[in-house]
C-alpha cells in the first residue's frame, strides 16, 4: 500500500506541517463561528486527484472518497489527511482491500482480493500480512496460520487442492518441521523439511509398501535408517539416494539374513548370508550374487571353499563332501569341470580332467614324468633359466593335453618361485630367475606335495657379468698412503646384484691417480687372485684423486679421495733395515729408490731403453718372447742361439752401466757409507763381489 497523495519533505516535517494545518483550520473555524470545524468539501489536486467528503480546511478528515487520476479509489475514514479507521481501497489493477487502516497503511483486520483471484483474510501490519490469516489460492490450495512480514512464519496448515495437507512449523515461507498426510491417508510423513523436501530426520509410511524411519536428504532416504517392508522383511543400515548403499543388514520373515556391503540396492562387496534351509555363505558378492572368493556350508553338510561366479561355484575350489570324499580343482557352472583331484573315502584317488561333473582321464604321474634342460643344473644370476617338463601318465604314455598343475621353486640362499607355462600338449615350459649366487635345490612338484622324477635337483647359480657400479675396492691404500711407499689396493668384480665374480676378465679398467699438482701418478694394474691389484708410489704428500672407469662407466663410488702423508725418516729406516734383509730384498729397495730419483725430472724416459723407438709387430713379439726364435731364412736357423746370447749379454752390460751411474748419484746424495753392505754378502765363484747387474 502507498499513500494516496505525495507530500514533499521528510516524515518529521510532514507531520509537523500537518499539525500546524490542523491547528490553523480549527482556529479559522472558530473565528468564523463554526463549532466543529468540519466541512463537506470537494478538493481538486494539481495532479488530477479529487477528494469529496469531510475536511478540516484543506485536510481530509472524517469520512470521504478520494479518486486518483490513475483510477485508484479509496473510500472510508480519514484522520488528519491520512487513511485511518475502516475503509475500502480499490486499485485500477483489480486489487481490492476492505478493512482497517492506521497511519495511512493497512493495519488490523482486513480482507484483500488480488488481481489473480487469490484472497487473504486476516491480520495486517503496516501494509503487510502479519499475524493470523487465511490465504485462499485460485487453484484450490489454502493456507491458514501465522504470518510475518507477508510470509508463512510459525504454525500453520497448508491444504492442497486434492485434499492432502501439511501441518506444522514454517519459517520464511518454508516448511521446517511437521506432518504431511495424503488425501487418501496412504502416504504419511512426520519429520523435518528443507526447501519443501523431506530432509533430516523423519518417518515416512506408504501403506502397502514400506515404513522408513531415519535420515533424509533432498526428499530421499540418505544416511542411516531402518525400513520395514510390507512383506515383513526389514533393512537396517546405510542409504544413498533412496537406495541401500554401504553397510547394512537385511532380514526376511522366513529367517534368512544377509549382513555386509551393499551397492546401489544390491549385495556387493563382502558379506555373509544364512538361508532358511540352513545354508551359510561367507565371502564376496557382485550385484546381488555370490561372486569372487567365498566359503559355503550347504544344508546337506558339504563344504566348499573357492571361487564363485554369478552365484555358482566357478574357477578353482575345494569341496569336502559329507560322505568323506574330497575334490580339489576347477569348477564351472556349479559342477566339477577342468583339472581336478578327487580323494574318495575308500582311499582311491583320481587326478585328471573333468567335464560337467564327470571324470575323463588320468593326469600326469609324478614318477614317470620327465624333466630336462640346462636350468635343472645351472643358472646365471639375473638371467632366465629354463627347462621343460614332459608329462606322462601311470602307463608311461605321453600326455596329449595339458591341465596338470606343476609347482616349481628353488630353495637356497633365498627362495625363488618359477613360472610354469602349459603348452596344452602335455609339455610345460619352466622359467625362473635367481639373483643371489650359490647352491640351490630345485623342487618340481605336482600340486604341492608330490615330487616329479628325481626332484629335488641341485642347481648352482653363477654370477652375472661384472657391473662397474657394484664393484668394490679393498685394501689399505685406496684411501691412505705414505709418501715414497709402494702402495697397493685391489678391485673386486661384482655383478649388478652384488654377487662376487670369479674373475676380472670381463672387467677392463682404466685407473688414474692424480696428484695435488694435477699430474698423473704412475700405476700398475695386474690380475691377482681373481681381483685387479693396483700399485703406485706417491712422491709428494697431500690429497690425491683416484678415478677408475670400466668401458667409460665409473667404477664403484669413483672418484675416491686419497690422503698421502709424509713417511718421516723413510730413507734412514729403510737403510737401517737392510742390515737384517737379504741381498735380494736390499737390492729391490735400492732399485726402487733409484727409479724415484731417475724420475725426478718428471718422466722415466731411458730407464728401460736409451730412447723411445717405434717397434714393428715382429719386434714387439720378439721382445715379449725372447726364447722364441724369429728368422726370415731357414738357413740362418743355426745362428739364432748365438745371436740371442749376444743380445742378452749386450743388454746386461748396458743395464750395469745405468745402475752404476745411479749408484754414483746416490753416493753423492747420501754418502758412500750408505752403500756398504754387511759382511757375509753373497759372492760369485771367483770370490768377487756380485754387481747389481748380475743380480737382475
Automatic annotation (TrEMBL):
Residues 650-670, 677-696 are annotated as: Disordered. The lineage of its organism: Eukaryota, Viridiplantae, Chlorophyta, Picocystophyceae, Picocystales. GO terms for cellular component: membrane. InterPro entries: Filamin/ABP280_repeat-like, Filamin/ABP280_rpt, Ig-like_fold, Ig_E-set, MORN. Signal peptide: none annotated. Filamin repeats lie at residues 361-461, 463-564. It holds the Pfam family MORN. The keyword Phosphoprotein does not apply. Residues 650-659, 685-696 have a biased composition (Basic and acidic residues). SMART domains: IG_FLMN, MORN. This is Uncharacterized protein. Keywords: Repeat. The keyword Repeat applies. Transmembrane segments: none annotated. Residues 660-670 have a biased composition (Basic residues). Coiled coil: none annotated. It comes from Picocystis salinarum.
